[in-house]
Structure formats: C-alpha cells, structure tokens
Amino acid sequence: MISVRNVSLTYPNGVRALDNVSLEIGKGDFVFLVGHSGTGKSSLLRLLYHETVPTSGEITVDGIRVDRLKRGRIPALRRHLGVVFQDYKLLNDKTVWENVAFAMQVTGAHTKDIMRQVPRALDLVGLSHKSRMFPGELSGGEAQRTAIARALVNNPKLLLCDEPTGNLDPSNTTEIMELLLRINVKGTTVVVATHNQAVVDRMRRRVVRLEDGKIVTDEERGYYYLGLGQGQVLSG
Amino acid sequence: MDWGKVKFFLGEVLRNFTRNAGMQATAIGTVAITIVLLGAFLFVRATLAGLGNDILNQIEISVYFTNDASTHQEDAVRAALSKDPRVASVAFVSKQAGLKELRAETHGVIDTSLLTENPLPDKFRVRVHDPASVQNVALAIRKMSGVANVVYPQTIVARLLQLGSVLRRVGIVVIAVFLLVAGIIISNTIRLTVFARRREISIMQLVGATNMYIRAPFICEGFLDGLIGSVIAIGLLTAARFMLWPKLVLALPWIQLNASTVHAPALVAELILTGAAIGILSSWISVGRHLRT
Q1: Residue of A nearest to B3 (CA)
Q2: A89 — contact with chain B (CB < 8 Å)?
Q3: pLDDT single digits (tens) B105-126
Q4: How, if at all, do strands B123-128 and B61-65 pair?
Q5: Best label site of A215, B22, B45, B238, fewest CB within 10 Å?
Q6: pLDDT > 50? residue A146
Q7: pLDDT of residue A229 exceeding 50
Q8: Domain B60-152 coded CATH 3.40.50.300
Q9: Measured between alpha carbons, how far is A105 from A112 in angstroms, rounded to an integer?
Q10: pLDDT of residue B112
Q11: Residue ranges of domains in chain B
Q12: Which residues in chain B are closer than 8 Å to A83, comparing Cβ atoms?
C-alpha cells in the first residue's frame, strides 16, 4: 500500500526533517509511527498525502508515485486516502452531517451517493443521533469521530492519522483507538502518528519509531519505549 | 440534472457573499464607480467623435474649372469622380447657379447687380465617404485637365482627424487605468474572502476537491460583484443621461452636442460585460495565487 524508499526531506529553512527513510506498509496493516515531537512523524505523513514533496527518494501510495505527482493529479491521490488530525479540522458553521457530506460534495459526488454514504459513515463512528449538531456542541471524542467519518466517507483504502488522540482524555482516546481498529478490520490500511505511550503499549501493533528524522526501530507487536534510556526494553 | 449539487453550490456562493457583506459592498462600490467613470467617458467620447464626424461629413471639396474649360473636360472629370469608390457624390454648379448662391449667401451685402459679367467659374461640389480620404481625393482632382483649383477646409479636416486619433489613444489609456484599478480592488476583496475561508479551502484540498471546484464559488462571487456593480453604475448613468445631460446641452449652446450618436444598448452591454469580466478575472487571479502556495 505504501512504499517509501530512501526519502529525505529538508525544509527551505534548512531543517532536515527526514533523513534517508525507507518503509514498506502492506495492504490492511495497522502501523504506529512514534517518536518525540519534531522527529519527523508528521512530515512523513505529509509526504504521503502530498502536502510536501521529498527532497530526494521515492514514495508510492496505492500504486501512485506521490513524489512525482503533478499538481493536477493531487486531488485524485487525496480521494484514495483519508486524513485525520489532532485538531479535527471541522467546519464550525456546518453540522456533523454537512461536515461529512462536504467531503463528497466538493469532489462532485452525486446527491444520491451522498445520501447513501454519509449515514453509513456516521453509523460506523456511532454519531447518527448527533448528525444535526454543530462541532461546537460536540465533545472532543465526538468531534474526532466526525472527522474520521469525513475521512472515511469516500471509502479510502488508507487512513492517515496525525496525533488523533492528542487533544482527548483517556476514555475518549480508547474510544477513538477502538474505532480505528474496527476500521482496520474492515480492510482499511491505518497509519497513526502518536506519542501516546499507553495507547501504543496496550494495542501491541507494528511500531515504527523515528528519532531525528531516521527510523530507529520497526517492530511487529512493538512498544512505545518513551522515556526509557538507550538499550532498555520493556518486556511484554 | 443533480439539483442537490446545484443547491449546494449556490448555497456556498450565497453564504460567502452574505458573510463578508462589508467587503462585498466595497468591491461592488468600486466596480460601480469605475463603470460610471468609464461609461461617462465613453459617452463623452462618442459624443465628441459624433460632433467631429458631423463636421467632417459636411465637408465638401470645391472643384473650380478654368474659364476656358470645355464641357468635354468637365464631363471627363465627372466621369472619373463617379468611378472613384472614395467619392460619395458629385454635384455640378454652373456659373449662373454659383452667382445665385452667392447672392443668397451674402443677403445682398454684395451688390451683384453691379457685375457686368459673371466672374465665377463652373464648379463641382464633391463629397467623400471617408473624411480621411479628403486630402488624397483633392490632390487627384487637382491633376485633372481643365481644373483650375481645388478648395476644401484643409486645417479643419487635419485638426479633426488628429483630434479623433488623440481621443482614441487617450481613451485606451484611461480605460486601461480604470480597469486596472477596479481589478486590483476586486482581487483584494476576493483575497480577503479567500483568507477568511482558508481553513475551508485547506479541508477541500485535503479531501480531494479539484482546484477548479475550489475556485468556482469565488469566481461566482467576483462575477456577482462585477455584475451588481455595473448594473448600479448603469442606473446612475441612465439617471445622469436624462437629468444632467439636457442641462449640459443647454449650458453649452455653442457646441452642437448630440447624444444620438451614442448607441445606448451597445454601451450598456459593453459596460455590463466589462464589469462582469473584471470581477471574474480578478477573482480568478487572486484565488489562483492562494491555491499555488
């Protein structure tokens, strides 16, 4: 699903965000990207949906060569994947229903399809009963579920989440993670950048750890390791 | 036809339009002022051009024959002129008719009864289609045999022709400046509404909306600014045409101002199209600038 080969990214201000990173993620995988703030997790995600372009290296997402993508083809890539952020990025003057439908409307979807798929997405995230509410009236967890419904409404094969639980309390965090897992079970590839140790350690999924723009560990059923010294490993 | 799509699109346009009502009013006002100035300018220019043309169209070339010119020579000149595509009409004025005209024009100030013989030569009165060709036609006639002299108001023709070309050139510059100013102000207005909606735009881009789709509501917004502004301007211009213009005509009796040379429907159409075009073009540019960064 995702193939990243020898990718480096240096921002115009000279900051080296990623340094020769290579990573393969298969169809249907569930992967955590972990590491301190500023280690390149978000940069790596941004490269995948062509928000930034790599300084060097190759990136392929669902068969699309993202690093060579022409500007006009970006929308096509974005329709293949959903993105979820820490701050939800909802439109506050639109209801839950409208926020989710918006993702379809702006891609020119038929009303018939919108009427069919929006309720389905809202049902999946358990928000059918709040579809008429505005983001300001929702809890953080509900707002994030709305954002996830919006990311999923176009049936993407890949869901990218950048600190999806960063603003949430533990119970909402658990709720969101369970939702992401359910989505993954249905066949969607899920990549989650996080520094929430509890979540990573409890879920025991593939963990890719970044430090200073490099991948330092990549383990199936891994742990977070945050705050532990060099060489120390938590036993499972 | 997917009415849901249409409804969504129009809803978006209307929401934008009403949300930044203050800014829209500014943009519409600017367009209105620009179009009023432009319209007034075009109107005055057309009137002046009409005035000039009226004078130019009345210009005649007088062709005087020598006293000993034969009828044969005169006929030859007439035949040559009738064949010339630049010539509109040729009228023969005999010695006798010329004297009569002179009497009428001078109202007896010159006592022609004292004349023992008619001093006037035969002449042709020639009119041309295009005032610009007066000079060349006159030169051609002068070379014909039997022709003594060719007279036409040379300086007036030259001045009026020059005035016409100056008016055209100044006009183009003035219009360009007006349009540029209006374009800059509209594009700034649209840029502000783009800025106010940058979050929405980034979400649209994130979920895979094409740039064309993102642009469309803003283009519509610019179009509406231009359209409404120019309709207001045309209202003002129409009011001025019927309330101020007659007073101006009365105030300047020595100039024969004639507004009938202005083709009103064409002018209205031009102004509306111009307003709408500035709106569309300037919003296109300012949204494009945002989308590229």
Answers
A1: A111
A2: yes
A3: 777 676 767 777 777 788 888 8
A4: antiparallel
A5: B22
A6: yes
A7: no
A8: no
A9: 11
A10: 67
A11: 3-55+158-292, 60-152
A12: 206
Q: Residue B117: CB partners within 8 Å, gap ≥ 6?
A: none
The encoded tokens of residue A211 equal: 């430090």
**Range 183-222 of B in CB contact (< 8 A) with A:** 199-200, 202-211, 213-214
CATH 3.40.50.300 intervals, chain A:
1-80+156-224
Q: Is the model's pLDDT at A34 over the cut of 80?
A: yes
Q: Which candidate, A63, A164, A152, A58, places its Cα nearest to that of A101?
A: A152
Check CB contact of A88 with chain B, cutoff 8 Å: no
Asked whether the predicted pLDDT for residue A26 surpasses 90, the reply is yes
Between the alpha carbon of residue A103 and those of residues A165, B52, B220, B226, the distances in Å are: 22, 62, 21, 30
Average the pLDDT over A210-220 and give the result: 90
pLDDT tens sequence across B281-291: 888 888 888 88
Give all strands of the β-sheet with B87-93 in edge-to-edge order. B87-93, B123-128, B61-65, B147-151
Does B207 contact A150 at a Cβ distance shorter than 8 Å? yes
Number of inter-chain CB pairs under 8 A, A vs B = 60
Q: Is the pTM of this model over 0.95?
A: no
Give the list of residues 6+ apart from residue A184 with CB closer than 8 angstroms, or none: A28, A30, A190
Does the domain at A1-80+156-224 match CATH 3.30.1300.10? Answer given as no
Tell me what pLDDT residue A230 has.
46
